Amino acid sequence: MKTKTLYFYFFFLLILGIIAAVFSFPQEFNKGIRAFNSLPLVKDFKYKIPLLPNFEFKLGLDLQGGIRLLYQADVSKIEPKERDEAMTGLRDVIERRINLFGVKEPVVRAVKAGESFRLSVEIAGVINPEEAIQMIGQTPFLEFKEQRTEEEKQKILEKREEIKDKSPEEMQKIADWVLAFEDPEFKATNLTGRYLKSAQLGFDETTNEPLVFIEFNEEGAKLFEELTERNKGKPLAIYIDNNLISAPIVQDKISGGRAQISGNFTIQEAKKLANNLAAGALPLPITLISQEEVAPTLGKISLEKSLRAGFFGVLAIFVFMILYYRLSGLLASFSLLFYIFLTFAILKLGGVTMTLAGIGGFILSIGMAVDANILTFARLKEELAQGRDFLIALNNSFQRSWLAVRDSNLTTLMVVLVLFSFGTSFVKGFALTLGIGILVSIFSAMVFTRILMMLLANTRLKNYLKIWV
Description:
The chain is of the alpha+beta class. It has three domains: 58-139 and 282-297, Alpha-Beta Plaits (2-Layer Sandwich); 143-148 and 185-279, Gyrase A, domain 2, CATH 3.30.1360.200; 299-467, Multidrug efflux transporter AcrB transmembrane fold (Up-down Bundle). 54% of the residues lie in helices and 17% in strands. The strands form four sheets. The chain has a four-stranded antiparallel beta sheet. The radius of gyration is 31 Å and the shape is elongated. 34% of the residues are buried. The model has no long low-confidence stretch (mean pLDDT 81).
């Protein structure tokens, strides 16, 4: 690579590193700006250096507290053997809505208390209950109901007449009194939003009326086919949040698991419904029963101790690298600083919620960043020991160590992907920060360190082999 090209890449990465450092730690730069603006020769000037905007890192529930919401789940229409699975699906849907790409790190738990099934939702940094409820969203509960027979309808109407003008105490003495509160027109089926695969906005080809097109998964498609076959010539009611939206007449059995929802929607209403259903229709209806603020379980002291431990750990790495690998170790230390600033900037820019587990994942990735440099420097020693020219040895060391660096980091990224895909809350946070750290570490070790070493290798320093490794 030509020297001019190396300098271009070097200054580009240097500027990128400075921007990342300023964005990551603006408060430290602001201290210097305040000190400069207060100098006797500067403070009387009309125009002064403005302070840098400070975007705070998002801290997790364990470090800054938040809010806990407790929901009651209605499992009355779910078979007892399927209730645990339904609660797991409910937990996953709520967590997915809040924790898109793992940036919020909510703590969502399914809790069974006797015969009651509840869902506990803890969200970091939120002290306004309305904000938290809005974050979960007005998630619709979708269900399909079929028409009752005349006999079933008549029984409900007769039971309503029977309990008419009765007090609650007298009402409960009547056999099957609960039947009076059933819908006389339609009865529930097994087909609900838990089987929904996708939902999207569409329009009627004839009237141009906004519609919501839905598609069920394989199990839901089978239930929908059986339901439509059983109700040929009869209305099939579509309910959302227990409100009747439409009741189209079934003309024939419908296979493939596709349907449409119409209900005199405006475009905005249909779009909102489609988005909410696509984000995750609740497999169970839920009711908010309590809300409370949550204090940080670890707090500021634990955060400061973790950061202090990370600082001394990085400092120890710098000392080791410089003492053992000399000039190469010094350049690797600069590369490591670049890695730290760039990773912090990505985490802050991406709005990643930092928990103690996430900080642990980042610190672990620092060790892996140094590991790539050590593999390269060890290879450089071997190349020089074979009597090769320094520039050739340096180029070979990066090329031949790349396979080991690639494979070792790739296997770790595979584990990260599994943790992020199947883990929950703090596990996802650990995996996310570790994964971002690994990707940035590969770039810093194999690109930034290489550019620094190639620049100095084109000077007289290449003749002093003992100062390199």
